[in-house]
Amino acid sequence: MxxxxxxxxxxxxxxxxxxxxxxxxxxxxxxxxxxxGTAWAAGSCSSAxxxxxxxxxxxxxxxxxxxxxxxxxIMGIGALVRRSVGEGVTILIIVLILGAFLYDQTDTxxxxxxxxxxxx
Length: 120
Hints:
Elements: H1 4-7, H2 13-41, H3 45-50, H4 52-82, H5 85-103, H6 105-119
């Protein structure tokens, strides 16, 4: 038996495409408003737009840190329920790599430079 929310989703391919397009558009508007709010809150107009890349980078870093472990936990619970060791190890590796880039950027940058120096 399907839940009422899942049963309410139309099953024709055209309506699914429209729903996906609306979802992508809503997500784009949400991200645009988030980054615009970050840029405006940073100070005056001219400094906010001069430091636009830094402001967007800081916003993405904050969102990444906030969402990394929440999404990993949800996916990890799914892997536990299915008893899928391969999926659990894959999630672990992805979280370790993303966590290294999000939480310890300078050491990760030095590690990559040293690896490239050794290879090249």
